[in-house]
Amino acid sequence: MFRSVARSAAGKHLLRRGYSTESVPDRKVAVLGAAGGIGQPLSLLMKLNPLVSRLALYDIANTPGVAADVSHINSRSEVTGYVGEEQLGQALEGCDVVIIPAGVPRKPGMTRDDLFNINAGIVKGLCSAIAKYCPNALVNMISNPVNSTVPIAAEVFKKAGTYDERKLFGVTTLDVVRAKTFYAGKAKVNVADVNVPVVGGHAGITILPLFSQATPKANLPEDEIKALTKRTQDGGTEVVEAKAGKGSATLSMAYAGAIFADACLKGLNGVPDVVECSFVQSTVTELPFFASKVRLGKSGVEEVLGLGPLSEYEKQGLESLKPELKASIEKGINFANKS
């Protein structure tokens, strides 16, 4: 049953856009933080992806067990587990895509900002290793707060002389996944047909779903649009509270991370018109990093797309989010440069 579900659901999504399983390049993907709450289901989903030929699972503990478990799945990729800093280099060597869900999760009453000091240090160390062992890999940053960890990564890469803005991504796909799900429920349309761009950042009011651009068009009243926006912004908190202190959004985040990594792999392999929202270096606004639609290709970001027409409500939301997002970006840059 699981096999049929995995192949019909994950498989169909991952094999879209004319991909053929024949003549696919070898691609190595690493998951850093693979034994954690996001890392384990993300490792499972990446094992199911036929674009992956080698899957490297790294964490500071418990990775051999996760790797052994996942390796028994009868899919294309060969799985290797790496544990501890002394094995990090081996995990990273030859990688095409590195996914970073490493860090501690949020707990009730904890804001994304509370996570900063712990996760920022973890990210800084991992990115230093990426700069050394796989400087040309596409880096998918999941570790929160993404609004700060992406700028931290950029500064680490700049210091190492390896920074390429086309290859660094903040994974905001979960905001898109939530916006699609919530919109489909209100609009009473098939969620598989829904598209909703989400721009800005990846925390609270910096998350700005553009429901005015949602398809299929539903013409929802403004009060429902505001409620959908609020729910999308607070989606992480909704899950933290529902889990009553025993976890955060791990499963949906793993799914979103797998979807974005798949898009990166398709882009690397030359599949045309691969477009996803992501938090990247940008000139769309005056801020140095911003989430918007991005066209992916063989070098990573091929084009950062504009915002398109915004409703008055969205224009207000855009101006409201800028100060908070600016502060988060600066906080990351300052952290990276203080030592």
How does this model look, in words?
This is Malate dehydrogenase. It is an enzyme of class 1 (oxidoreductase). It catalyses: (S)-malate + NAD(+) = oxaloacetate + NADH + H(+). 44% of the residues lie in helices and 17% in strands. It is an alpha/beta fold. Strands 3-2-1-4-5-6 form a six-stranded parallel sheet, sandwiched between helices. The chain has a three-stranded antiparallel sheet with strand order 9-10-11. A two-stranded antiparallel sheet has the order 7-8. Strand 1 (28-32), helix 2 (39-48) and strand 2 (54-59) form a beta-alpha-beta unit. Helix 2 (39-48) crosses helix 10 and helix 6 (146-160) crosses helix 11 (312-337). The model is unreliable at 1-20 (pLDDT under 50).
Question: What's the short version?
Answer:
With 339 residues, the protein is an alpha/beta fold. 44% of the residues lie in helices and 17% in strands. It has helices at residues 2-14, 39-48, 63-71, 88-92, 116-133, 146-160, 173-187, 222-233, 235-242, 251-268, 312-337; strands spanning 28-32, 54-59, 78-83, 97-100, 138-141, 168-170, 198-200, 207-209, 274-281, 289-297, 300-304.
Relevant terms:
alpha/beta; 339 residues; 6-stranded parallel β-sheet
Distance between the termini: 52 Å
What is the SS-derived class? Answer: alpha/beta
List how many beta strands DSSP finds: 11
Rg computed from alpha carbons, rounded to a whole number of angstroms: 19 Å
**What kind of sheet is the major sheet?**
6 strands, parallel
Give the helix level as a range of percent. 40-55%
Count of DSSP-assigned helices: 11
Uncertain runs with pLDDT below 50, 5 residues or more?
A: 1-20
Helix and strand succession?
Answer: HEHEHEHEHEHEHEEHHHEEEH
Strand content: 15-25%
Global geometry: globular
